[in-house]
Amino acid sequence: MEEDNKPDIKPVIDEAQKEPDDKKTSLCVALKILKKYNLNSTAETLKKEANLTDSAYNTSEHDVNNALNIFKSQGDPSVYENAYITLSKFVETSLDIYKHELGCVLYPVFVHMYLDLVCNRYEAEALKFMKKFGPGQESYYQADIQNLAIITKKEELEDNALISNYKSNEFVVRMSRDTLSLLKRHLKEKKQTVLLDIVQENLFFDVYEGIARNKQQIDAVAGGMIGEGTRQDNKSRVYYGLLKEPDLQTAAATVNLDEDEEETQESEKPKKKKSKSNPLLSKKTKIDPNAPPLDRMPLPQLREIDKKIKVQAVLDSAKRVALNHETLPSICCYTLLNCSNAVNCATISDDATMLAVGMANSRVRVWSLVPQKLRAMKTADQLLDIDLESDDVMHRILDDRSAETTRTLLGHYGPVYQVSFSPDKTLLLSCSEDCTIRLWSLLLWSCVVAYKGSYHPVFDVKFSLHGYYFATSSRDRTARLWATDNYQSLRLFSGHFSDVDCCQFHPNSNYIATGSSDRTVRLWDCVTGEQVRLMTGHKGEILTLCFSNEGRVLASAGNDCNVLLWDIAHGHLVAMLTGHKGPIYTITFSRDSTILATGSHDCKIMLWDYSKLIEDLSLDDMNVHNPTVMNNSSKYLLRAFGTKNSPVIHLFFSRRNIMFCVCSFNSPQSN
Predict the structure, then answer these.
(1) Where is the TFIID subunit TAF5 NTD2 domain positioned along the sequence (predicted)?
(2) Cα–Cα nearest to 451, from 467, 465, 471, 466
């Protein structure tokens, strides 16, 4: 008989243990509310009678709001469904000029109503609410709704990152003043406290003066996990101009020109001295009024080898092909074979002489793209006999006997997600699932530094165009700025609400752009560490970023198969290019900023007339508040090239405007 009674006694004990905790929580909430409304004497009396300590005042706002919602809707969960239906009907019956902006509140209201039902333990009603209204939300929110639908119990709310984002951040809705007045009038007339409280506590209205936006304008910038960026987010000044180029005449005298040029100079020796006053190098660049001060970001001093590289780049640019809608670039395609689903990333050095590939098996492979093979440095004993003051010391220290066409770098113990060459080609960065960034010497062909700044996989790494600095992005929702000579990161850029999938340096190295799974693009100031731009419009994860050569336009693309162009001077979306049928992995601009090239998982390369697009946009004359988004893709698509079952993972324009493409062949059997 005693054993038969045990099951009956156990639940009673559990309830008795829970009851004091629930009462104490309610008392703490009541105390916080009294304090909030300055009822201090009442609060002190309650604290003494309930034997509460001062820590009771530390009750979170989240608990206070939950308690209030429970009391307001206690015993009648149907008020949520009725309130949502009323709001939906109000939106549908509103005038067309206001309807689309009013519709922006439906999704955040739906989310918070569902969370309140789960929090109040109305599990059956929450499931019904989700099934009834979830499918009616916009398509770009469906992935988040699926993750939301998994949460069906109150205990599951605490450790969910998506729920935490919704509870700790206000959903931003951009709305004209007239539209907001109409919404406020509706909320007051209907007197639905549940709906009114959700709007007041969880939505932020970024109000502007003027005519309400149409559906096309709203859809173009919609899709962010917690709404649009506010005007305050994009208010800071951005120095998007380029830095003044240094004087290269002195370095030009020591540069070895191409073989055909050397032969010509040998036959006409008096012309040899003319390289000292090459007109290409004596061009004085104008000071860009939008460029940052030279001392704003401490950039490394140019070494002699850096100057020689810049001189060679200028000389190569003299042979650059002028591209336009009639003269399209030549394309050199490198296809990686026998590595289906094994290649994660690829990159080509700025002078187009080396290719690096990151593999899923944790290896990094480097190929030479020119007849000159990859050589290693001589041994220490052999280096003692070399004159370090000689002009060709960099060639003398390399051992010809060690030359190989390809080399493999071992050190990571997880898939390699991205690789990046330094401007002088002596270093290579790689990042991996093993949470490290490795710096490889391309003279020693070994790892010289392993940077560890996060306990999460690192998805992207990029060298600055000026060298020395590099940027990373990670699953921990942050991006970081590093210097090669420092084990610790110099800046931590925090603000994204999900994985930061890609990053890119601005051409002047003062800013870093990031793209995230929260479907936002952000721009960060390397000097202050602050966010200076927040741009929404993508409907899926952002996988690749690229700045235009003049520095004002940022291109982004990803899983939504769209290419978006942003004017970072104001933080506005100015154009959308559509046409790809699969995720876009790579974007690049031609060296003269006339062509924009995109490569995708759909095994296609698309070339877009960027110069015509910018001409039609007239960025300086654009409406600052509601800019027109150019989306006539067929007008600007120049050509689409298909590969043979080979997704495009990297595109690159050489200094002479030859386009290089890296693909990974997928055999039909592996699909």
Answers:
(1) 75-203
(2) 471
Q: How many other CB atoms sit within 10 Å of the CB of residue 8?
A: 8
Cα dihedral 110, 115, 116, 120 in deg (nearest 10): 140
pLDDT tens per residue across span 490-532 = 999 999 999 999 999 999 999 999 999 999 999 999 999 999 9
Q: Using alpha carbons, select from 531, 617, 636, 622 the residue that is nearest to residue 579.
A: 636
- 115: exposed, middle or buried (C-beta count within 10 Å: 0-12, 13-18, 19+)? buried
Rg from Cα positions in the chain: 30
pLDDT in tens, 80-118: 999 999 999 999 999 999 999 999 999 999 999 999 999
In CATH terms, 70-228 corresponds, of 3.40.50.300, 3.40.50.720, 2.60.40.10, 1.25.40.500, to 1.25.40.500
Contact 474, 500 (CB under 8 A): yes
192-207: average pLDDT? 92
Q: Which CATH class is domain 340-370+406-635?
A: mainly beta
Amino acid at 546: C
Handedness of CA 196, 201, 206, 208 (dihedral sign): positive
Q: Is the model's pLDDT at 486 over the cut of 70?
A: yes
